[in-house]
Amino acid sequence: MLIIALALWLASYQVERRALRIFALRYAAASLGWWVAHPGRMQTGQAIPIGSALVGVALLGVTVWALDEFLGRANARRRALVAAGTLAGALVVVAYRQWQPNDPGAIYVVMIVAMGLCAVMAWQASRREPNVGHAYVAAAFASYPVVMVGAAMVLGWPARSNLSYLVALPAVIVGITILVVSLLRASLRTEVELRRRQAAEARLAEVNTSLERRVAERTAELQVMIEGLESFARAVSHDLRGSLGGAASLSRMAEQALARGDLARARRMLQVMSPQLEHLASLVRDLLTLSRLGDATLNQREQALEPLVHQALEQLAMEPDCADALRKAVVEVGELPRLVVDATLLRQVFVNLLANALRFAAGGGRAPTVRIGSAAPHAGEAPAIFVEDNGPGFPPEAAERLFQPFSCLHEGTLSQHGIGLSIVRRIVERHGGRVWADGRPGQGAVFWFALPSAA
User: Fold this and answer.
1) What is the rounded distance in angstroms from the CA atom of residue 438 to the CA atom of residue 399?
2) What is the pLDDT of residue 417?
3) How many Cβ atoms from other residues are within 10 Å of residue 197's Cβ?
4) In terms of Cα–Cα distance, which of 380, 384, 404 is closest to 453?
5) Which of 109, 357, 394, 442 holds its CA 20 to 30 A away from the CA of 2?
6) What are the average pLDDT values for consecutive 10-residue runs of the chain, which has 455 residues?
7) pLDDT value at position 53?
8) How would DSSP label each residue in 35-70?
9) Burial class (CB in 10 A: 0-12, 13-18, 19+), 414
10) 333 DSSP β-pair partners
């Protein structure tokens, strides 16, 4: 018993500190009690010392308390119940002693009940927390009633005074089992903690790898953005300088003509200057639109697209640059889906695409025709919205450049400042979609855009 008490105390420095120390003190007290009140005294016919009986009941209560701590179920309420049960056991022993002063049977009955309760507690814990050895603890505590009841049946209940020798065997079994299971639980907890830390390290490594990849991707995106902004600034500077320089030169020439009284020449200069200023105003307006798209808040709701197309055509009919082309062109509006979109922004998409299609269809040398509808770009793909014209078209390798600011593939009046399609792409991308173009020289062009809700 003392060896088991020492082993439990030493193990408490590593695991189950509180529970194992209570068990160690219990085994030390039991060893002392065995030495002070040797069981041989119970065969002398003398009355059992009441002090020894009550100490035995108290040790049973300590055992139940220690097991409760070991199973992690101890709290103030359960400790109070253990104390009440211990007091009830002591009262039973005292009452039985008054009736049978030389019979130790009461203490053994209380022991059978207490150890059976411990076996049930450990078995219930094994159901809640399997594979940590609680079932072995339950079996160890069950050895008390098994040994005592079995011995009483073999030796006869009158010989129950001899049971005091036999309880030492279950006590040793319980002590060794508690020690082994506590070490097993410590090993399992260490293994679980090791796996948890390994998983955390793996997740951390994965996060670091992902972060490094995202930083690299973001750095590449920023580099492309910086290069694009530099190119954009150069193009804006060039276009603005050309338009402003031309307007300034023409205004000086008109001023000189007016000074000479040459009204006809001054009028011609103003007529030449007017389109340049209109082009400049259009450029500034589109630049403002393009810059505001990144901050614009989307007000999306589900709606039909045909009304937006007709509103765009009405707007183009009031613009001098497109009104004449719109009157001469055949515009076919096909069936369009209902989508969740920002109506104002998507109407601008139709305005820009239709204006572009009308301008190029009018310069294609054929009867201008513009078609708008919804279809699958290729077999097996989801439907997308298209705007098609029968204008001069463009080389397939130039399709991506069409959506870059200030990218103009055609000279003369067909190409303007090249911002309209950039606005189209920015709006479509804000909706989570994509835009692209198909074309062949002399065979017209088709501009497509697809939104997520169109799939």
Assistant:
1) 7
2) 58
3) 10
4) 384
5) 109
6) 80 79 80 60 52 77 84 84 86 79 73 86 83 82 80 59 64 82 80 87 89 86 68 63 74 84 83 72 64 68 91 86 84 90 87 88 78 86 89 80 64 56 84 87 88 63
7) 72
8) HHS-GGGGGSSPPPPHHHHHHHHHHHHHHHHHHHHH
9) middle
10) 372
Neighbours of 238 (CB within 10 A): 11
d(CA 329, CA 205): 62
| Whole-number Å distance between alpha carbons of 352 and 321 | 12
Q: Extract the tokens encoding 48.
A: 């059992």
Report d(CA 188, CA 192) in Å as an integer.
6
List CB contacts of 421: < 8 A, sequence separation 6 or more. Answer: 352, 356, 402, 403, 447
pLDDT value, residue 230: 66
Tokens representing 361 are: 């269809």
Q: Using alpha carbons only, give the angle 40, 165, 171 rounded to the nearest 5 degrees.
A: 135
**What is the tens place of the pLDDT at every residue in 132-177?**
778 888 888 888 888 777 776 766 554 455 556 666 777 888 888 8
Grouping H, G, I as helix, E, B as strand and the rest as coil, residue 283 is: helix
Q: Which amino acid appears at position 184 of this protein?
A: L
Residues across the chain: 455
User: Which residues 6+ apart lie within 8 Å of 345 measured at CB?
Assistant: 293, 296, 298, 427, 430, 431
Per residue in 82-116, pLDDT (tens digit) is 888 888 888 887 887 777 766 667 777 888 888 88
Nearest Cα to Cα of residue 445 among 369, 376, 384: 369
Give me the amino acid identity at 80. Answer: A
| Integer Cα distance of 371 and 356 in angstroms | 12
Give the angle 68-18-135 at the CA atoms, nearest 5°.
40
CA end-to-end span of the chain, whole Å?
A: 78
Note the pTM of the prediction, 2 decimals: 0.46
| Alpha carbon distances (Å) from 60 to 63, 71, 97, 134, 182 | 5, 17, 18, 19, 20
User: What is the Cβ-side half-sphere exposure of residue 117, based on CA atoms within 13 angstroms?
Assistant: 17
Tokens read off for 49 = 């010392």
From the number of C-beta atoms within 10 Å of its C-beta (0-12, 13-18, 19+), residue 188 rates as middle
The residue among 281, 359, 284, 346 whose CA lies nearest residue 316 is 359
Sequence-distant (6+) residues with CB within 8 A of 60 are: 86, 89, 110, 111, 114, 115
